[in-house]
Amino acid sequence: MASPATPVYKRVLLKLSGEALMGDQPYGIDRDAAGQIAKDVGEVRHLGVETAVVIGGGNIFRGLAASARGMDRATADYMGMLATVINALALQDALEREGIRTRVLTAIEMRSVAEPFIRRRAIRHLEKGRVVVFAAGTGNPYFTTDTAAALRAMEIKADVILKGTKVDGIYSADPVANPDATRFDTITYLNVLERGLQVMDATAISLCMDNRLPIVVFNLRTPGNLRRAIMGEPVGSLVTA
User: Fold this and answer.
1) Which letter does DSSP use for residue 181 in this model?
2) Which of the residues 60, 68, 77, 217 could staple to 141 if both were Cys, CB 3.0 to 4.6 A apart?
3) pTM value > 0.90
C-alpha cells in the first residue's frame, strides 16, 4: 500500500475537454482557466508523475455538431482536430509560463507548429520529465478525442486515464438536470456501456475495458483535485473491471 506521500500512479494520461479552457466564457480560451490547469498539472509533475494530456476542441469547433448541420462529416472532424491543436498550443504556453517543460505531439503533421506523434518519442519525452500534450485526436475522422485518449494511454502504457469534467464523478443521470441522480464511487466498464452513461464514448470505454485500463472521472474545476486523484484519494468515480 502506498504511503500518503507517494503517488499511486507513475504515468498518467489526463483527458480534458476543450470546454475546460473556456472558464466562464461562452467560447474560446480563457487565460486564467488555462493557467489553473497548468498549475494543477505542474503540481503532479513535481511529484515525479509522468504526465500526458489529450485535449478536445469543443470550445472552438465541434465536428459532430457541424456534421449535424449538413457539413461533410470527415471535413468537420478534420476541422475539429485542428481546433485541438490550437488548444494544445494554448495549454503548452500556460504550462511553460509555470516553468514546466512541454512538448506538443500532433497526429496530423505540421512540423513548424508541433512534433509529429511517434510513440517511442512520446515515451522518451515522458521519461525526461516533460509534459506531453497530444493534439489532433487520432488523426482520423469518425473518432472522438475520448477514443484518442484511450488509444494514446494504451500506447504510452499509462497506469490510468484521469478524465477532468465539470462534475464530481459519474452519476446515474445528469446531476444538473436531475437533483435525485445518484453518484457512483466505482462502476464497471460494462455497467457504463449498458446504462449508456456519458462518461466517454462507447469506443473509448470498450478499448479501456479490453485492456483493463482504469478511468477516474473527477471535477477538474476544484483546484488540487488532480493531485488528490493521483495520490489515490477518493475524488470522483472509478471505472474498472
Assistant:
1) P
2) 77
3) yes
